[in-house]
Amino acid sequence: MRIAVGADHGGYGLKEALAEHLRSVGHEVEDLGTDNERVPVDYPRYAEAVGRAVAAGRADLGVCVCGTGIGVSIAANKVGGVRAALVHDVTGARLAREHNHANVLCFGGRTTGALTAVEALDAFLAARPAHGRHDRRVREIGAMEQAGEQALEVPA
C-alpha cells in the first residue's frame, strides 16, 4: 500500500517512528516532511500535502502528525475528498476507517505514545470501510463538501 506521511516539528518524532514501522511491514511510504524537530514549521502545509497526495490517488492513505493532532486534522479535512480522523487509540482508528471511511489518520506527537500510535495505525490499515448505513453518512459528508457554504437540510 502507498501511504503518504507528513508532520510539523511537534509531530516529527512520531512521524518518523510510524514511517519506519510502515516500511518494516512492506508499505511504500512517501514522506512529505518535515525533516527535523528543531526548526518550527507550520502544520497546514504538511497536512495539505498529505491530503492532496491521497485525494489525487498518489497515496492510498495518509498519516499526519502535529503536537496534538488537532491542527493537522482540521487542515487535512480542508482538502476535497479527504476524511481525516484524529485518533488516540486502536478502537478509534478502526472505527474511523470502518464507519467514517477515513483516508487520513491523524495523531498528536505530544499526546500519543509511539506504541499506541503503531497499534492504532495497524488497526486502521487492517480495517475496511463498512457499508450500509455508513455509506449514507459518508455521502452526506461528501454533500456538505460539495455544498460549501450552503447548509444541508436537517431532518426534523
Secondary-structure map with pairings?
Layout: E1 2-7, H1 12-24, E2 28-31, H2 43-55, E3 61-66, H3 70-76, E4 84-86, H4 90-100, E5 104-108, H5 114-126, H6 133-147
Helix pairs in contact: 1-5, 2-3, 4-5
Give an overview of the whole structure.
The protein has one domain: 3-Layer(aba) Sandwich (Ribose 5-phosphate Isomerase B, Chain: A). The protein has a 5-stranded parallel sheet, sandwiched between helices. By secondary structure, the chain is an alpha/beta fold. The protein is globular. Helix 4 links the parallel strand 4 (about 85) and strand 5 (about 105-110). It has 6 helices and 5 strands, in the order E-H-E-H-E-H-E-H-E-H-H.
Summarize the structure.
With 156 residues, this protein is an alpha/beta fold. Helix content is 46%, strand content 15%.
Mean pLDDT: 95
Q: What is the element string, with H for helices and E for strands?
A: EHEHEHEHEHH
Can you tell me the CATH superfamily? Sugar-phosphate isomerase, RpiB/LacA/LacB
Counting helices, strands and paired strands, the structural category is alpha/beta
Shape: globular
* Share in helix: 40-55%
Oligomer: single chain
Instruction: Tell me the name of the CATH class.
Output: Alpha Beta
Strand order of the largest sheet: 2-1-3-5-4
Which terms would index this structure?
156 residues, alpha/beta, Ribose 5-phosphate Isomerase B, Chain: A
